Amino acid sequence: MMRRHTNLDMDALRTLVYGVDLGSFSQAALKLSRSPSAISTQLKKLEAQVGTELLRKSGRGLVLTDAGESFLVYARRLLELNDEAVAAVRGSKMEGAVRLGVQEDFGESLLPQVLGAFARSHPRVNIQVRITRNADLLAGVNKGELDLALAWGETRTAYVESLATLPVRWFGPREPAQVLRHPLPLAVFESPCLFRTLATACLDAVGIPWKVTFTSPSLAGLWAALSAGLGVTPRTALGVPQGVRPLDHADLPDLPRIALSLHRSEATASPAVARLTELVKQTVDDVIEQRAI
């Protein structure tokens, strides 16, 4: 007799992943527009399907069991394949080109996921990517040279959507004692730079003397300077490499949060631009949630 296969409930899988990523199944209920009782029913159904307990109570919340930890890896893969398959079928006939601009911060943390998923789902669409600094990205959108750009700050373009506001932190070498001195050595981008302006304004406000000891046109140059102990720099936690550490407990002023926005050159997005917009937004959400930024 042929063995009956168990078909996992994709909605229940999504509930499990969202609940874990958000740190709360109450938050998952809000995001998925479901009642707490519906969420509970889904999770119980999922446990019945796999035949083991995936979650256990811890205080007022739920945490993964050992089996749940193992199952979560497969749940993420199944959801990714499910969403990719649906997008591929719906977008298989989509053609044209789309031009995307991003900051270097997202080169490793976001870009490979976005480009890979988009290329697999829409093989007939030619995607062009420009990795450059904020001013160039915004200029590219305003001139119609870029269809979409992911950029820092509050600068407004004609069609902009705020995605998040992220904390800015001080970063330095693994051995910070060599750079925590007066005047404070700064490794920063060449002007104009939002992060540079934030840092110097905060240092001036508390009377900490500073000196620019290293400038670079690229983020890779800044990380290399920090690893070599040439200074400190203000940045978000996105894309921080090994050899660099946050200086959260150093005697340095707190830095304000910075906005992250998605800019579009046209009021009405083409199907390709609309799909790429969805992918960028979802990937940004996933990266922020996974890294608890």
UniProtKB/TrEMBL annotation:
Residues 8-65 form the HTH lysR-type domain. GO terms for molecular function: DNA binding; DNA-binding transcription factor activity. Keywords: DNA-binding, Transcription, Transcription regulation. It holds the Pfam family HTH_1. SUPFAM superfamilies: Periplasmic binding protein-like II, Winged helix' DNA-binding domain. Belongs to the LysR transcriptional regulatory family. This is DNA-binding transcriptional regulator, LysR family. The lineage of its organism: Bacteria, Thermotogati, Deinococcota, Deinococci, Deinococcales.
